[in-house]
């Protein structure tokens, strides 16, 4: 194993070592000094992100005998995921202290989850992909149940675990079929096998592919495999929901891109229809059902399902433009999701603020926080000039470019339905009187981070060109 | 310097608005600071508008004051601004009305004045943006972003049912415009950038044009609003604060008309011809049926709202009557009339809503029956209100007459019955407006509240007199306004008389 190989995977290796160190250190600090764990974890993230930045190659390179890939796409997704986890840490710290949850497990499990995400992003083999996915999933199951006194958290963790296990089984079963048909686990070799022997593009491959797609759709929370998502979003503590809603979505993008595009891109016709239908169902169900929710976390869960519909829409086009648009959408969506849950965390003084009513009169209690939530909601609704609009524009452009104009009409109509519940949040913040009049005071670090997050949603909307260009470059 | 005047006009009020938002409502600071900043910013924009008018060359139909910078390279989106004879009058209307709104809301708004004025300033910038954008996505961005401040204006400072009204307003207009976005992206597929002028030049089959026309129609018909998608307007108007009603009636409705003439007609001329009869029928329904509806209203704001729908029916009538002639180029009269009608309606409806606002501030009622004999206690106000009502009814010598007369004349040349139906509005308009005036202003003093009314204060007096002068000025001497747009409209007539279908079939 050469030095170059080690360098390419240095971020993952470093993270794995640091997790062990944090694990040991955390044993020796008591609750009062838990900030040691926090800073150690946060420092780990900073070094990891620096390692990723330094070791991202200009072109694609394969390491570990072809089972691991490092390319600009991986670099971008990794940087974004690590940053999201870091942002989540900043948002969560005071919440955890206030709720007596400042335990080492939160940081450890998050870092473990992040390790899984990084592995998934760079996986070039179905098994490595599976390995990363399980590392992530098992950490997430435990994270959801992390507040062990909460029965609702335990319940949702149980649901998540059982359904997640079934989905993993489905994925693994599909992987075995694909391996059986193509004779390889590595994506580039699978792609090559399909090109060389077109007779492979037949029922056995499709059969395996169907199971893989089910697994992917489950991890995204796309309809009809979305049942776990609203429950988990609602049941988990808000910092955990924040974690689930951000970085793993990027990993899921990597999963779908590596498997369906890098690996099975040659049989695009075979999976296009499935992804299209999943996308359509997600758009409609997510946006319609979100209207009926009074719990914001649950509402954001359904809204996430709707957004996944957009990401899948970019994928099913099967074009470079579409993939780049889906990537842009994923990146901007997680920024908005982080902002939304960040505001909810800021609102929670004792106990979770997760009802629409908790937002009543926010514009009086903390005008700036209300403005940030306004940005997030308008961004998610796709109102220009916030970035969500350009993400939608990008995807719709790709969809129309592939000749699916009718589908684009359905997409925009679902956005109109979606606009209602995002506007309802604004309505509660601005048009309703606050039941409690005391101001909401944010901690400085939380306040700064959330301001950056909110302004980023606007700034990326005013100048989306650079990030869009970057997405196109890394996809090509 | 004059090359970036449009950007200046867009961003000056927006940044002034953001400054106000950042300053916030601070109890310690004298309240007037906020007001003077907003008045200063809106007046500065107004003077920029005057400068634009003076520098504008009305002998040419080509775009002027062009600014073109690449905005989003990968999608071919540009920050592309420019104005011609169609946009300049509407921009002038915008910069003229906004300072008046600021003045009229001076000490009326007690709740969060900084946010209130900020919303109007931001709205002003965005509206100027809509009128000067020549890139489809830029146009769409301004078009949609405009909904946000309006949503907040109605929702925060509105009346009893404000939340229902503002949600209806937002969702209705949002639903209307998303399909326009799909059309834009479809057209982008044909031309490879979002330049509106390229959209106009690209050939399209009749079927494509029809779909695009319908998508545009949804967006613009909702904004105008045309019958039968007008139902959001009375709700929004009634619940909005006075300033909100004024800006809605005076400028935002014009967006719809502007959309038709800037986008629908040049991009889909053959489909416009195909649907012209339908559009004329819808316009005539708006003019007559909505006129009767207005007659029945007991709420003054609702009455003026319905009267707006009827008057905007003239605008769409004037645009689409063009295709009723053998030669499209003869349609310049109707289109010019419609444009004048837009400006005039902006002035008159704004003034009418301000008048109702004056009464509402004193009595907190919009119901006609709550008043009676107001002229006894507020003679100066009564004089103004009678003038604006006459203008609303289309009295010769006021701006209301010019546009309506030109449109009726144009329809007469096309078809007697069109003109006949359109002319009924003169009767209906007089009936509902003057009947309201009679019930509100004249007769015995109806109750103690009316007896206690005080006449206009000097601020209200100045605002209304500025409007009165302009209504009369446009009515007596419309030539400068018409000269402004003649070249552009003639060019437009040439443009839409040529079919775009050729080339596809070959």
Strand content of chain B: under 5%
The secondary-structure element order of chain A is HHHEEHHHHHHHHHHHHHHHHHH
Beta-strand portion of chain A reads under 5%
Largest interface: A-B, 33 and 35 residues
Could you say which structural class the secondary elements and strand pairing of chain B correspond to?
mainly alpha
User: How helix-rich are the residues of chain A, as a percent range?
Assistant: over 70%
The number of helices of chain B is 21
Measured distance between first and last alpha carbons of chain A: 29 Å
Largest sheet of chain B: 2 strands, antiparallel
How many DSSP-defined strands of chain A?
2
Question: N-to-C terminal Cα separation of chain B, in Å?
Answer: 47 Å
Helix % of chain B is: over 70%
Give the H and E element order of chain B: HHEEHHHHHHHHHHHHHHHHHHH
Structural class of chain A: mainly alpha
Which consecutive residue ranges of chain A, at least 5 long each, have pLDDT under 50? none
Calculate Rg of chain B over CA atoms: 22 Å
Strand arrangement across the biggest beta sheet of chain A: 1-2
Instruction: Give a short account of the largest sheet of chain A.
Output: 2 strands, antiparallel
Structure description:
The complex is a heterodimer of chains A (about 475) and B (about 500). Helices cover about 75% and strands about 0% of the residues of chain A. By secondary structure, chain A is mostly helical. Chain A has a two-stranded antiparallel sheet with strand order 1-2. In chain A, about 60% of the residues are buried. Chain B contains 21 helices and 2 strands. In chain B, strands 1-2 form a two-stranded antiparallel ribbon. Classes of the chains: A mainly alpha (about 475), B mainly alpha (about 500). The interface of A and B includes residues 408, 427, 431, 464 and 468 of A.
